[in-house]
């Protein structure tokens, strides 16, 4: 049977936390400052379900795991406290904190004529890219401040494609969260997961590290006619 040819990839959308920089770990540690006060053992495994999830939804999930209830005022204060811990932990970050291979990969994409965008659930993502001196690399930036719906809703990636003036089918998403992979697929985009197959098995391709990202490698692993020559 004739298979329709996949659209050429013209843009790459990067998740922030856990892809551009290792802040997924700092989000975890910031919540842990709070859960330790409750005597609740918040483990890295439990943290997997929070990846790509907004701050308020993360708190709701943590309270559910801990079997606790808080008033709306308390929840607001806890989100502020978590964000203060988080902002403190990222305050000295520079371009040197970008995960291995990310900056050369972005340069490689741009040299090959692809567009690059940010697609993050974090309200701190734009701020962090600016702090690290990396925002000039991006043709479009979408972060938590632009969103009304959390991943796995496709909103973040659809807005990022729009910001690059591309169709969803022309985009590939690099993500470290299962909910992010689901969001990208719901948007009709191809996906590369960064992390473990156990969590990211639904992605078109899973890499254990950002250091493995390269255009020739993606061209080989995703069908050859999906990426432009170069
Ligand atoms: P903030 P991403 C997400 O960013 C993180 O994965 C998630 O752990 C965090 O709760 C969320 O951003 C909200 O972050 O509190 O800074 O608004 O992975 O989509 O780049
Ligand atoms: Mg992430």
First-last Cα distance: 30 Å
Do you know the CATH topology of the largest domain? Rossmann fold
In CATH, what is the homologous superfamily of the largest domain? HAD superfamily/HAD-like
Tell me what the CATH architecture of the largest domain is: 3-Layer(aba) Sandwich
Helices and strands, in N-to-C order?
A: EHHHHHEHEHEHEHEH
- Write down the CATH class of the largest domain: Alpha Beta
Question: Rg from C-alpha positions?
Answer: 18 Å
How many structural domains in the coordinates? 2
Number of helices: 10
- Number of extended strands: 6
How are the strands of the biggest sheet laid out side by side? 3-2-1-4-5-6
**Overall helicity:** 40-55%
> pLDDT below 50 for ≥5 consecutive residues: which ranges?
none
Which shape, going by the Cα principal axes?
Answer: globular
Largest sheet: 6 strands, parallel
Mean pLDDT over the residues: 94
Summing up helix and strand content along with how strands pair, one would put the structural category as alpha/beta
């Amino acid at each position: 049977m004739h298979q329709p040819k996949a659209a050429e990839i013209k843009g790459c959308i990067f998740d922030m936390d856990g892809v551009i920089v290792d802040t997924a770990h700092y989000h975890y540690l910031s919540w842990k400052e709070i859960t330790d006060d409750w005597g609740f053992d918040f483990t890295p495994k439990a943290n997997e379900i929070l990846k790509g999830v907004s701050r308020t939804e993360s708190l709701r999930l943590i309270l559910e795991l801990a079997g606790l209830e808080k008033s709306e005022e308390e929840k607001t204060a806890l989100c502020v406290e978590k964000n203060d811990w988080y902002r403190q932990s990222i305050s000295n970050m520079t371009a040197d904190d970008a995960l291995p291979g990310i900056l050369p990969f972005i340069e490689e994409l741009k040299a090959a004529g692809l567009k690059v965008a940010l697609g993050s659930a974090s309200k701190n993502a734009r701020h962090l890219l600016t702090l690290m001196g990396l925002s000039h690399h991006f043709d479009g930036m979408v972060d938590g401040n632009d969103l009304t719906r959390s991943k796995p809703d496709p909103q973040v990636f659809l807005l990022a494609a729009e910001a690059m003036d591309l169709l969803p089918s022309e985009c590939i998403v690099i993500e470290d969260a299962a909910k992010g992979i689901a969001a990208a697929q719901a948007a009709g985009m191809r996906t590369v997961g960064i992390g473990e197959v156990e969590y990211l098995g639904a992605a078109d391709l899973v890499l254990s590290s950002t250091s493995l990202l390269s255009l020739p490698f993606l061209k080989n692993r995703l069908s050859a006619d999906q990426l432009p020559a170069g």
